[in-house]
Amino acid sequence: QVQLVESGGGLVQAGGSLRLSCAVSGSDFTFNDMGWYRQAPGKQREFAAAINRYGNTNYAGSVKGRFTISGDNAKNTVYLQMNSLKPEDTAIYYCNAGLMSSSGSRNNYWGQGTQVTVSS
Known about the structure:
By secondary structure, this protein is an all-beta fold. It has strands at residues 3-7, 10-13, 18-25, 29-39, 46-52, 57-59, 67-72, 77-82, 91-101, 106-110, 114-119. The chain contains no helices and eleven strands. The strands form two sheets. Strands 2, 4, 5, 6, 9, 10 and 11 form a seven-stranded mixed sheet that branches. Strand 5 and strand 6 (57-59) form a beta hairpin. The chain is elongated.
């Protein structure tokens, strides 16, 4: 059974930094892509950043230049380094993983979310 466990959220002042981690546990899968999404109070969940198995990254315009997504294959972990944080970055951040099964199908998994609060 695949599980995604996020950590690293918290309270930070505007202009500060946080690093989120998402560790994937389980067996019989290979990574296809992983990403971070976020959901602010009263808003829909939105895409923030993603990385694929080739190391190619993609960012939402609102975080580009401030956030960096990276992965550690040996640790089955993906990170989101968030710099120059703004109050509008306040949200629950969710890790998403697209994992390939041994049969070749892509399965989508979500973490439980971690709260990031940026004070002004």
